[in-house]
Every structure is written in structure tokens, then in C-alpha cells.
Amino acid sequence: MNPKYAPLFESFVFPIGTHLKNRIVMAPMTNFASHEDGSVSDAEVNYYARRSSGVSMVITACAYVSASGKGFRGEIGADRDELVPGLRRLASAIRDRGAKAVLQIFHGGRSCPPELVPGGDVVSASAVPAVEPGSAVPRALADDEIDGIVRDFGEATRRAIEAGFDGVEIHGANGYLLQQFFSPHSNRRDDRWGGDAEDRMAFPLAVVEEVVRVATEYAAKPFLVGYRFSPEEAETPGITMADTMRLVDALTEQPIDYLHVSLLDFWSVPRTEPDGSGTRMQWIMQRAGARKPVIGVGSIRTPDDALKALKSGVPLIALGRELIMDPDWVGKIAGGNDTDILTSLHPQDQKKLVIPDPLWQAIMNTPGWFPVENSTRA
């Protein structure tokens, strides 16, 4: 291994005692490979197994906690006890190869396609559709329904514990239900679940409280609870960087184990603050870095990119696209073969890289993955 990359391979220990062998985490990425009923498929297990040997922790694609929260076809389900055996296979496939296994749990809210939820009943904080053309107008959740979804997050956590996962990550990012409650665009409520920025945190914080409660009650060993969030929104009104700082302050006061910042670019700057005020990650690290471990992500393509991000002060780096293209990304750096890291896909690569058919089809229809159509590798 090139000595300059040694910091990427330093171990990390969360305050609760969970030990990571290095600083590289597999980011949660949709793979569309679960069965229609939400059960884990063989293809999904094999996909994660192929990518779990080098990284220190794998955060799975999001798993819906309620039948009303299924956000896309091929999504993992965590809403019923009958799904635990499949979840157990998934956790074992990750853990057996030396990585910690974390199940990301979520509810899609107004982002759910009507055809995937019971009766086509799309729900959210308020009856405000997403800005994308053709978005369904959701039904505002009733008070008792909100309490029920909070309990669903707790039940999904219990199932993750029973399945042998090392933790759960609460998905409060990317415009899904928790973010919908925090956003002034999607939350126009005037009850206990809405109002100003502090009041709009009520649902996310209730979910955190319930997940932590269940983890404390059921986990016999250290069990991680993380929270992923998106710093800002493009909508007007929308979540601003100042709003996010309030949320970060509230989250750091909770007994959770890490924060995970969802960004397309690790080095992006706030859209709602003056130029020159620092990157979003700098804002978040200055506010939370001394109190909670933070995972950073976003367009980290090369070992040098990862090293630069780590040297900025963020203790853990998540990779997504890079581990799809090259499951051996971490191992190649450790073995001194970093110049052999694959940076693009070729049409004949699917089987070798163990990429499920639905994910492969999505990749084939997304610009930028293949350097030349129908090219072949020398």
C-alpha cells in the first residue's frame, strides 16, 4: 500500500464501542433487486456480499417501514415479521465478509408511486405535491397515523436487531417523509407536527426517540443508530442551511451514534448563504464534529479524493457509484494496486461485478456510466 493512503485504513471506534476496521463505508444505494413482496432476493444478497470485503461498514438500500411507505419497485421491506429471515441472510452476507451491517429504514411519503401503496393512498405531512411534473397530491396524515408510523420505525428496528444487523440508519434525506415533515415546502401543518423550524422537527425527533428506545430494549450488544439528512432544498420555501443547523443541533443532543450527510458533491457550498462562507460539510463539522461522528459522501471518485475528504476532518467517508463499478476499490488500495481501480463500466461487466438485472438496466439507461456504447475492455 502507498503509505500516503494509510489514514484511510486507520480503525475507528464509535463511542458505543462498535469497531470499524477502516474509514471507508459503502453508501446506501437503491438496487431495485428485492422481490415484489419486499423480501430479499438472492441477487441482492450476492450483490452486497461482493462489495463487503474491503469496506468497514455497509449501509443498505433503504427498507420501507410501513406498507404506505414503499418508494420504488424492488425495495427492501422491513414492515412485517415474515421478512426477517431474508433480512438475516442479507446481514450475514455482509458481516461474514468483515463489514458491519446497517439497515437503512425509511418511509417515502409523497415520493411513493400510487401504484405501490395500498389503495394508491399517497401520504405526507400536508396535501402538497412534490415540484416534479405529474406528482401525486398526497393526503395529509392524521395525528394517530403519524404516531403509527413512528411505531413502525421502532418495529423495523426490532426486526433489524432480530436479523443480526449492527445498526440502523434513519433516512431523513432526499425528500422522503422525515424531510417532508421538516421542510416548510411540504409541511404546512398547524398542529403539534408543524409550525416553525423547531416545531417541524417533532416527527423526525419522535422517530429518533422511538428507534433509540427499541434499540435499548432489544439489542444485546452495541447497536448503531444513525441519521441521514440533506442540508438544503431547492424549493421555495424550502430547508435552508440555517434550518439545517437547527436540526443538527437537535440531533446532536439525541443518543444517536452518527450523522450522515447526503450530498452529490462533498465540496458543495450552501445555496442559501453568501459565497465564501465555507462548504456545507465545513458548516456541519463545525457545528457537530466535536459531538457526533459524521459520514461524508459525494463525488469521491479516487483514493486521493477520499484522502482529501478525510483530511478535512470528517472521520468516515462513504462511497457509492465507485463500489458499483469496482467492488475491489478498497482492496486495490490496500494492496498497492490503486492504479487498477475501474472508473467506468462496460456492457460485458455485469456478471463479473455481480450487479442485479434491475440495477444494471437502470445503469444502462443513465448517461455517464459507459465511456463508449458497446465498447469492449482491452
Key traits:
two-stranded antiparallel sheet, TIM Barrel, 2 domains, eight-stranded parallel barrel, alpha/beta
Characterize this entry briefly.
This protein is of the alpha/beta class. Helices cover 31% and strands 13% of the residues. Strand 11 (224-229), helix 6 and strand 12 form a beta-alpha-beta unit.
Describe the structure.
The structure is a single chain. The chain has helices at 42-50, 84-95, 143-163, 177-182, 202-218, 241-252, 280-288, 303-311, 321-325, 329-334, 350-353, 357-364; strands at 12-13, 19-20, 24-26, 57-59, 63-64, 76-77, 100-106, 123-124, 139-140, 167-172, 224-229, 258-261, 294-296, 316-319. It has 2 domains: 3-343, TIM Barrel (Alpha-Beta Barrel); 345-378, no CATH class. The protein is an alpha/beta fold. The strands form 3 sheets. The protein has an 8-stranded parallel beta barrel, surrounded by 6 helices. Strands 1-2 form a two-stranded antiparallel ribbon.
